[in-house]
Amino acid sequence: MKRILLTGGGTAGHVTPNIALLPRLRELGYDISYMGSYEGIERRLIEELQIPYYGISSGKLRRYFDPKNFTDPFKVLKGCMEARRIIRKLQPDVVFSKGGFVSVPVVLAAAHYKIPVILHESDMTPGLANRICIPSARKVCCNFPETLSHLPKQKAVLTGSPIRQELLTGDAVKALRFTGLTPDRPVLLVMGGSLGATAVNEAVRSILPRLLKEFQVIHLCGKGKVDPSLSALSGYVQYEYIQDELKDLFALSDIVISRAGANAICELLALRKPNLLIPLSAAASRGDQILNARSFERQGFSLVMEEEAVTPEALLAAVHQLYENRTSFTDAMAASQQTDAIETITGLIEEAVKA
Asked: Which residues of 106-139 are buried (b: 16+ CB within 10 A; e: fewer)?
């Protein structure tokens, strides 16, 4: 049986694309294992799926001063030794890495044993962990055409991001029953990420009376951010977080407002949902969401409004513009070559195993 070792961790975004690959990898006959940090989010997500999980020591490689800079290099070295020992035991035929700092020891250990490595970079420009790993990789997959110029030409492959195939099986009728909404008006889905986005929440709520004249609104507002004073509004439903029913909410939605995390926008692309992206401010991040959003804007997939430009009037105008031009966004997404990521990536994995 062919053996594959998956790695990636630190955030859910470093794990969910790996999870999306699992059904196809099983179809192809792979024995699957996962290596991540001792107690990262990846451990819970993977163990819930009954995948053998191997934890290693993990430290962050920082480019700024932090007292942990004096101790984390030793954690990384320990992780490298642990990864070598585990890989020697598992003897995988190939390693697929989704990135995050825990992946660095795994990739370096695989390279030591001359095991082929396929990387995936979600954001426009490679993060530090993937930049360290790229020399050891056979191929580097990416989400955006612009990323190709940041990667070695002979290794770079534009694939898009693997998304959970169950998201494509949503049922709008089930969503109507779940939400209590009606089929007679269009539906706007607002997503702020699993933690919610205060700026997006406040902006949407500031225009609710006017929005609800034309749209029904499903608001995924984040943990602790439900506003009980709005619960009685007709045509407006709010939830902290949705998991199993998300596919149905997507099926019911006509347009979407979202942050611009790479996995989230790749899901919108695969689902062909016209969207308004409000990326996380550069003041609160390294600016990757802004770059992601502008790429989707250039490709005709999205409208973009930077957080600093969000006002009630501007947001309302953007929602109307998005809805009125929704067909042009859908057509552009339908023509994209970045929506078959699972087949493309597993094809690269198969090639690496057979080489």
From this structure: bbbbbbeeebbbbbbbbbbbbbebbebbbebbbb
> Is 289 a known ligand-binding residue?
yes
Q: What confidence tens digit (pLDDT) does each residue in 325-339 have?
A: 999 999 999 998 777
Any known ligand binding at 11?
yes
- pLDDT tier at 304, thresholds 50, 70, 90: very high
Q: What is the DSSP letter of 168?
A: G
Helices (H) and strands (E) in the chain, counts: 14, 13
Amino acid type, 247? K
Q: Does the annotation place 194 within a ligand binding site?
A: yes
Tokens describing residue 328: 């042009």
Report pLDDT for 68. Answer: 58
Does one domain contain both 249 and 309?
Answer: yes
Residues 86 and 172 in one domain: no
pTM of the model as a whole = 0.84
What is the count of structural domains for the chain? Answer: 2
Q: In angstroms, rounded to a whole number, what is the distance separating the alpha carbons of residues 152 and 132?
A: 13
Residue 12 has a CB neighbour count (10 Å cut-off) of 16
Domain that holds residue 191: 166-334
